[in-house]
Amino acid sequence: MRPFILSLLLLTPALPSEAGQCGSIIASVCALPLEEAAPARKVLKVTPTATPYRTGDRFPVETRSLLLDPTRYGLAPSDGTWHYYAMAGVVYRVDRASSRVLDVIRSRKTAHLR
Predict the structure, then answer these.
(1) What residues make up the domain containing 51?
(2) What's the Cα-to-Cα distance from 46 to each of 43, 49, 109, 111, rounded to whole Å?
(3) pLDDT at position 57, please?
């Protein structure tokens, strides 16, 4: 095993001079000298997501799927006059007759719904 490793080490080409100077075996990593490659501080800005529909807005029930088992997500069962629809992690309680949003519900249990 040792002769095999030794032969591999002898057959590998020497590091390019610029790659050897920066301490990496990949030349593209050494594009800038170490003095200029200081890591910049990265700031993550999160914009709060706005719900596209608010209470009283008309919800497009014809393009969205009905949430069939609301108790699975900790929601009250539908009484027949309204239904639940999920869109982008938000659940909407929508009036069955007028398709108006009655309530906007956000929770951890429904965040994965699309």
Answers:
(1) 46-114
(2) 10, 9, 21, 17
(3) 92
